[in-house]
Each structure stands twice: as structure tokens, then as C-alpha cells.
């Protein structure tokens, strides 16, 4: 669960990535929408979810759409997670006291948000949510004026939901 639900404004934040470079919400939103996924490397539902987020990144990442992971773990473990699950989008670290996770009122991971350039949260869900990922793809397609890219392959057996 999170206190930042669809329709609510996402609080601004700045966090370092795996190489120490700082990223801020307000800066990235000036370029377009952001999909952000909070996670822990030990979370099996995060393991399941992140390859689908990478599909969104491959479909939209070169078109002004940003996707960030926000890890609640240290740099070494997070780098291992990214390598294991093929994550190529920026991953930020919220490991020191979970300041951003606490500001967002997180109680479970993964928590996935789609934040519009205005700062409004358009989609918010916890756990793996097939319909939630499809909603994100539709919103991103609409933002770009295109048909949404499929997140799931035809015939792919994917559950509707897995709790985080």
C-alpha cells in the first residue's frame, strides 16, 4: 500500500543512482511521464515484476518516457539484482533510512506508480498487477499519441495479481 494513490500529487524527491549520480522527480517530469517501482532485492514478487517493467522500458524508454527502480537495499545487492533480472533503466537507492519510501507511505513492495508530467499520480498499485501494467502501457501510449505497446506476449501465462 502507499498513501500516494491515483489522483494524488507525488512528493518531490532526489536520490542517487548506483554510481552516485543524483536524480530528482521534478527534473525528470519536465521531460515527460515517469514510471517508478519501489523494490527490495529479496522480494520474489519484485523478481517477477521487473522483467515486465523492462519490457515497458524497451517499448517507451527512447520516446521521452522514464522508468526508474528505487531500491531499498545497498549498492552491491542492487547491482546484482539488476544484472540477474536484466534491468537497464536507472535504479536509485533509498537504502539509508528509507526516506522516500516513508514519504510515500510504502508498506509493501513492489509498489509501482505512473506519474504524469504535472506531478499527478495516474496509476498506483502494490504487488504484481497485470491490469495495472496494462493501464500504464495505455496511459503511455496515449501520452505519445500511439497505440499502447503490449506488455505481455500472446499466449504468455501471467497471473492477474501477485501480492507484494
Provide tags for this entry.
single chain, 164 residues, alpha/beta, Glutaredoxin, five-stranded mixed beta sheet, two-stranded antiparallel ribbon, 9 strands, 22% strand
Describe this protein's structure:
This protein is an alpha/beta fold and about 160 residues long. The protein has a single domain (about 15-145), classed as Glutaredoxin (3-Layer(aba) Sandwich), CATH 3.40.30. Helices cover about 30% and strands about 20% of the residues. The chain is built from 5 helices and 9 strands. It has helices spanning about 25-30, 45-60, 75-85, 100-105, 130-145; strands at about 15, 20-25, 35-40, 65-70, 90-95, 110-115, 120-125, 130, 160. The chain has a 5-stranded mixed sheet with strand order 5-4-3-6-7. A two-stranded antiparallel sheet has the order 1-2. The termini are close together.
